[in-house]
Inverse folding.
């Protein structure tokens, strides 16, 4: 590894990975909340369309979707996205579909009495969602969202296949330049791991904040030096099954 | 959108060939993930921390780093150590190893879910350690986690196109090759995407039904 490779490729690549993770996570969060809440709609057509979206995007592979957006969209529909945004779109739509299941599960897990109380107080549906349901549902969503965020971070490595110059892409170039595969791939694996570790810590902090807002203490962590939450076992709520599905969400 | 049915018809046999490879990689990867995951899960319960901690650290590291990078790691680093595998074998190893870190957690949850009384009964019957595991604990633990394991098989199926990036001739690679030689991109890529949905959706319905049957 020479200093030039670091400055010209690996560090900018790492920055691209961080940016991709943040933008895709934001986009996925918007999709997840929008679709997750729409799936509880009273209109069957809304439920059907959002359900269709979720099944399609959970059913297909993120990599195939990325190739599709990258190669088929320009030919078939005559407009081309900048590779970076095609990647954000693909990741956001895929992980948004998984996230919407988390949102739906957490909203459904709020005790029905809360909803009934809000109706009795003649809240409008929007007020009910914003003032009563979501504040209680969001703290429950954070641990599964954390798992999904790590999956998303790992998913960003796929963008190197459509020539976005992220960390993995930079590693490929460095390997071609120096031929030292072991060193380069070890370094970037550690880089990804550190990023995952930092993100997990941040999400823990967020969870503690959100739970404190409700006057609850955060769950005691399961034993072991695990970064991510245990996918199942610890929590036997409706979300636990979604969590398992979301585990290998690419 | 200018869809050409003739191109789609031409690509169909290639898609079939690729599908076989995709399924083969998924099946072999699953077997490896199930077996290795069980090894990790048992190691988590080892009485000595000199086994528990290193295994937990390695599992955590593998789970929190991208499969794609691990794939490249195996593909480019193993040959420098004079270990030469075909692309498909390398891919299966990486896929299986990566997902074994997920299945390990599933097994762990299943084992933790076996009631204490079962352990005590096994002790009372003075079954040996091996017998306790094989005849009492694992059959009950694995039964409860079958749907969760199935979901990971589906996840592996959806991750298998990554193998195309190290040159395994799966569905995605067939589409890429077809596009590169004929500039026909629309039909192959769309068909590959639809093929994944056609396999993954019924499979996930099956897992959901199984989950209800086994009753959580």
């Amino acid at each position: 590894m020479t200093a030039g490779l670091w400055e010209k490729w690996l560090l900018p690549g790492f920055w691209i990975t961080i940016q991709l993770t943040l933008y895709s996570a934001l986009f996925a969060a918007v999709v997840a909340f929008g679709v997750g809440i729409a799936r509880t709609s009273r209109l069957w057509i809304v439920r059907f369309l959002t359900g269709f979206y979720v099944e399609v995007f959970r059913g297909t592979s993120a990599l195939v979707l990325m190739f599709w957006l990258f190669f088929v969209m320009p030919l078939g529909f005559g407009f081309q996205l900048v590779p970076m945004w095609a990647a954000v779109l693909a990741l956001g739509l895929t992980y948004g579909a998984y996230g919407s299941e988390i949102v739906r599960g957490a909203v459904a897990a709020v005790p029905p009495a809360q909803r009934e109380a809000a109706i009795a107080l003649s809240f409008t549906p929007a007020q009910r969602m914003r003032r009563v349901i979501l504040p209680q549902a969001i703290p429950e969503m954070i641990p599964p969202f954390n798992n999904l965020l790590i999956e998303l971070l790992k998913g960003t490595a796929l963008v190197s296949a459509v020539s976005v110059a992220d960390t993995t892409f930079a590693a490929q170039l460095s390997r071609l330049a120096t031929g030292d595969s072991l060193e380069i791939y070890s370094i970037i694996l550690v880089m990804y791991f550190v990023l995952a570790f930092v993100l997990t810590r941040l999400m823990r902090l967020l969870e503690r904040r959100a739970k404190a807002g409700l006057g609850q203490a955060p769950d005691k962590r399961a034993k072991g030096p695990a970064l991510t939450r245990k996918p199942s076992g610890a929590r036997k709520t409706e979300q636990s099954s979604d969590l398992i599905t979301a585990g290998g969400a690419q | 959108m200018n869809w050409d049915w003739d191109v789609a018809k031409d690509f169909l046999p290639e898609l079939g060939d690729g599908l076989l490879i995709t399924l083969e990689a998924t099946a072999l990867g699953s077997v490896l993930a199930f077996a290795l995951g069980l090894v990790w899960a048992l190691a988590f319960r080892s009485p000595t921390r000199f086994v528990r901690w290193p295994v937990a650290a390695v599992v955590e590291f593998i789970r929190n780093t991208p499969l794609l990078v691990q794939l490249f790691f195996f593909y480019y680093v193993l040959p420098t150590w004079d270990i030469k595998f075909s692309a498909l074998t390398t891919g299966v190893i990486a896929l299986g190893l990566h997902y074994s870190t997920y299945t390990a957690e599933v097994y762990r949850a299943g084992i933790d879910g076996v009631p204490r009384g079962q352990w005590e009964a096994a002790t009372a019957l003075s079954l040996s350690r091996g017998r306790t595991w094989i005849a009492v604990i694992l059959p009950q633990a694995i039964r409860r986690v079958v749907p969760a394991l199935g979901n990971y098989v589906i996840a592996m199926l959806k991750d298998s196109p990554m193998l195309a990036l190290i040159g395994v001739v799966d569905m995605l690679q067939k589409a890429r090759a077809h596009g590169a030689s004929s500039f026909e991109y629309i039909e192959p890529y769309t068909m590959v995407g639809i093929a994944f949905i056609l396999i993954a959706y019924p499979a996930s319905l099956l897992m959901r039904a199984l989950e209800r049957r086994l009753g959580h």
